[in-house]
Write a structure and sequence with these properties.
The chain is an alpha/beta fold. Helix content is 57%, strand content 11%. Strands 2-3-1-4-5 form a 5-stranded parallel β-sheet, sandwiched between helices.
């Protein structure tokens, strides 16, 4: 049995950092931007196509029609649905061949037929805004706008492809507030939970 951990996260909650920490503690490969590069290489498309695939809002008509126009690169056309299909195949292939931690990209849905640990990381808005102010060097107003925009596009992307509800507690084995224990503490808590429920060997 492979250890597969899928982490969804609200923006500014340090979900990516927590995923990295879990990977280091368990010695498991972590897939985020690396997944984009791998998908691009295996599909024969330029990495630039996949840079714009992550969490892109698809509910507006302008966005949908723009996707087919902007998807042109290296002599071929690819729209958002094609990009999602390619990334899905890469995620499935990686998960079938070894341990892995996936951040975002609807991995929990894509791997719904496999035995995975599905986690959602969030934190209070005030905490996330403060974290974004520090990490991005922006004002509180700018941080709040960025947080809401990113959360909205993540929710739209997830709900569009999964027909589900992004961030809904019943969709995950564990939902955690990262502001309480911090990055390392939250990573250790997720590992302990995963081992207790038999999802982490």
């Amino acid at each position: 049995m492979h250890t597969i951990i899928n982490i969804g996260r609200s923006f500014g909650s340090a979900g990516g950092h927590i995923g990295h920490a879990i990977g280091k503690k368990l010695g498991i490969p972590f897939y985020d931007n690396e997944l984009i590069s791998q998908a691009a290489e295996e599909s024969g498309y330029s990495k630039g196509i996949f840079d714009r695939a992550e969490e892109k809002s698809l509910f507006s008509f302008s966005s949908f029609f723009a996707s087919s126009r902007l998807g042109y690169m290296d002599g071929g056309y690819v729209n958002d649905n094609v990009m999602f299909g390619i990334q899905s195949e890469v995620i499935k292939s990686v998960a079938q061949n070894g341990d892995a931690i996936f951040i975002g990209r609807c991995a929990d849905y894509i791997l719904r037929d496999m035995d995975c640990l599905n986690v959602f990381v969030t934190a209070p808005e005030k905490y996330r805004i403060r974290s974004l102010m520090e990490s991005e060097g922006i004002s509180a107003e700018e941080a709040e706008k960025l947080m809401r925009r990113k959360d909205r596009t993540r929710e739209t992307y997830y709900n569009y492809y999964t027909f589900g509800a992004w961030g809904k507690a019943s969709n995950y084995h564990l939902c955690v507030d990262s502001s309480i224990l911090g990055i390392d503490g939250t990573a250790e808590m997720i590992i302990d939970f995963g081992r207790r429920c038999g999802k982490i060997k």
